[in-house]
Amino acid sequence: VMANGGDPFAIPERMDTDTESPKENKPENHTSSSSPPSPETSCTQQGMEGIKVYLHERELWEKFHEVGTEMIITKAGRRMFPCYKVKVTGLNPKAKYILLMDIVPADDHRYKFADNKWSVTGKAEPAMPGRLYVHPDSPATGSHWTRQLVSFQKLKLTNNHLDPFGHIILNSMHKYQPRLHIVKADEYNRFGSKNTAFCTHVFSETAFIAVTSYQNHKITQLKIENNPFAKGFRGSDDMELHRMAKIQGKEYPVVPRSSVRQRVCPSGSPFGGEARGLGLHPYSCENGVSSTTQDLLILPPAPYTLPQPDTHEHMQVYHCNKRKADDSCPTAENHQYRKPYIVSSPSNDESYYQPSAYPHPPLPPSVHPPPPGLSDSPYRSEAGQRQACMFAGSEPRLDNLSCTSWSYSCPLTPPMAPMTPTDPYTTFPHQPYSSSPRNTQLSSIAHQGSHPLGDSLSHGQTQSSRPHQTPQHPSPPLTEYHHYPSSPSPPQYHTLHTHVRGGVSEWSETT
DNA sequence: TCTTACACATA
DNA sequence: ATATGTGTAAG
Question: Which intervals carry biased composition (Basic and acidic residues) (predicted)?
């Protein structure tokens, strides 16, 4: 079965497309604009409407997408390549925003790579609470974000469900869809309150299958040819010979690595459109306004389609401390060639690994009132290296919990649960860095997001602007999510409702 | 499948 | 120079 149509990768249709119409010009540099990309979007409410987001190096992403993008996940955390970078326009120069990403399941299948192609092999593992990666510059003014490319190069992916670093946790052989959320910060530089405005942008060409080691040699070659850090494996000529020489003992591949070995891939990109998830298409962006951030998050998180219940994932927020503006992702452009983290105890790392430590499920760490914070970020720099992170979460044991139970039971509850100051969840693990309040909140958001999906969805929806895509199913938006519409339309935006759901409000109130 | 040490690369 | 990101080969 190739994936085709249905699933996974199959995708023939390309959706990508979208059009966009940006009124403005796009910045081209960054993004390649050739296509239609952009999310145009519209976010309606609260000043989010004129926001546009362009995927940087979209052409490179498309090259990978055509073959079936794979991203390595390791215990220590691995960066994504291509690097996720965007050009943002339309923000209020003086307003503060928090930019963050999450990576949600694109569908609920498990894949295998055999016979030189990807195919569905079963049902996906229950989704874990998703973690959020808050851009290290957050919160920052619209002017800051629009001034230059916003790079998420430091974001790392891991397969360690007990990851203590705040990296985004994914399951191997599962397909995912990265999403960007632009959230308007409140006066305290936080978000999460009931009417926080935000918008979500999804570029379907950034969907990928998480792997522990590359499956498709074509992908390996693309990585080697385009990632500066893999330059050592580029084959051309000399290097190869030299290497060989050194190696001597072994014969190694006579064939230069560069030589292509693979054969194959059918023409279409493996990933198909369907995955596209939400209605958003490719670039779609959706925006919503949202109600609380929660909602936002929520939306996003929700992975697949599915039944909502599951969706419950919570999200955890990961905030990188460092702030620098670095952005450099190594993109190789041209080459062608070839706390909530909960950590319960911040102090010892080990604790991280023990979920047990965490009492309850995760919850709503954030919920609380957040401190102020983001803005201050003293810690940021320091923390430095580690990226600290947080998330909300319950992560720890989710696994154990059956999804079901968890989802149902938790859904709303968590958020609501009050946290004590000392509550582990609320606190950040490592202080130095993570501490910022915002994290907290975010996390909360995340949490909520997850479950609520259903609900929230229903209410709100985020979905794409394009009508047709909307999900039909009663199910919430999430659902949609994975069903990505294949239609090509451009971006979509959705608007969320702002509703504050009971739940939401509740948690928000915790404050 | 996943993990690890390693040579090579960037920054 | 140190620190860190890459895919490989071997476990």
Answer: 13-29
Torsion of CA A87, A91, A93, A98, to 10 degrees: -80
> Considering only CA atoms, which of A446, A441, A435 is closest in space to residue A395?
A446
Determine the protein residue whose CA lies at the shortest distance from the C1' of B8: A232
Q: H/E element holding A202? A: strand A197-202
Return the structure tokens found at A178.
């990265």
Q: Is the pTM of this model over 0.90?
A: no
Nearest protein residue to nucleotide C7, judged by CA and C1' positions: A230
- pLDDT-derived band of residue A505, with 50, 70 and 90 as boundaries? very low
- Mean pLDDT over A235-243 rounds to 56
Residues with CB under 7 A from strand B: A 74-75, 112-113, 159-160, 172-173, 211-213, 228-229, 231-232, 239, 242-243, 246, 328, 330
Query: β-strands A130-134, A315-319: how paired?
Result: parallel
Contacts of residue A342, defined as CB under 8 A and 6 or more positions apart, other chains included, come to A316, A358, A362, A365, A390, A391, A392, A393, A394, A395, A396, A424, A425, A427, A429
Strand partners, A151: A85
CA distance readout (Å), A414 to A95, A312, A407: 31, 11, 10
Burial of residue A303 (CB within 10 Å: 0-12, 13-18, 19+) is: buried
